[in-house]
């Protein structure tokens, strides 16, 4: 079965959780799952479970404990190198497994902020091994990324409690 490319985008809550839901389904069907997460500076609760699941490999770039707009040029350059390394590592693993799902969580945000080499990503998407199923998440994919996707699912915010002052809640948002 040929693998396809998914994008979960938009300003509503649920992009990462949708990707994790697909990971659960694929894993249940015998897929190996690679979850490569970008721009996350703290652990999210799903890792407590996924760490224990055979056939799931988690790769994370460590973001300094600051917002990306607070990083100086040197910190940005270092983060870009780290993100490129995580990306390369993820695609290295793909080669042999027949059933593989690879989730690049918030890769779209990393591209938008120039914190990863976009060309390498586009090149991979254009030439990826046929069998690999790929998911990208992030709010605002550009036209080039959208053009490469087979599924594009936009999650649109109708309402979010953050806007009325409710802070992120453990187990729900992280
Ligand atoms: P989730 O991880 O809950 O599925 P997401 O992947 O769609 O959310 P991101 O853009 O990755 O959302 O946002 C990172 C964090 O901000 C998450 O904790 C998410 O729940 C929360 N969030 C998502 N959308 C909004 C929004 N419109 N306003 C405020 N917080 C949001
Ligand atoms: Mg997310």
Automatic annotation (TrEMBL):
Keyword Transferase: yes
Pfam families xref list: CobA_CobO_BtuR (PF02572)
Keyword RNA-binding recorded: no
Keywords associated with the record: Transferase
SUPFAM superfamilies linked to this entry: P-loop containing nucleoside triphosphate hydrolases
One GO MF term: corrinoid adenosyltransferase activity
One GO process term, biological-process aspect: cobalamin biosynthetic process
Domain of life (superkingdom): Bacteria
Protein's name according to its UniProt entry: Cob(I)yrinic acid a,c-diamide adenosyltransferase
